[in-house]
Amino acid sequence: MKRLPGFRRERGVSLIALLLIAAVAVIFGTVGLRLFPIYTEFMTVNSILKDISGEGGEQARNVRDIRRAADRRFQINGVDHVSRDNITLEQRGEQRFILLEYEVRTNVIANVDAVVSFEREYRVGP
Asked: Roughly how many angstroms between the first and final C-alpha of the chain, as a whole number?
């Protein structure tokens, strides 16, 4: 049988391949939607602690004052996964650092969880 000059063999994605691509996209989309709020909350916490560490009056800032300021700002900004217990103050020579360490566990799909851990330090003072 002769082929007409303008026609070629049809090509495309099969139904099974299309379903597999859609399944992978749904899985990545679900993981992304579950992790997005955790990372946006971390960015909020990061901003709060940068502000606190850069504030003046370094001589009057002790662990209690820093935790109180952080706790108040966490409450105002609706931070749920970080508490004042996740913040410590460390002295290294003449420099002081605010240390943040916490982890968040979230359910991804059925009995599969994702654990995201954050560790960050902020130098106190200018």
From this structure: 83
Q: Is 53 in contact with 98 (CB distance < 8 Å)?
A: yes
pTM: 0.78
| Parallel, antiparallel or unpaired: strands 87-92 and 95-109 | antiparallel
Q: Whole-angstrom Cα distance, residue 9 to residue 13?
A: 13
Query: How far, rounded to the nearest angstrom, does the alpha carbon of residue 2 sit from its chain's CA centroid?
Result: 61
Separation of alpha carbons 22 and 14, rounded Å: 12
Rg (CA), the chain: 25
Report which residue type is found at 123: R
Tens digit of each residue's pLDDT (9 = 90 or more) over 9-40: 667 778 898 999 999 999 999 999 999 999 99
Numbers of helices and strands, H then E, in the chain: 2, 3
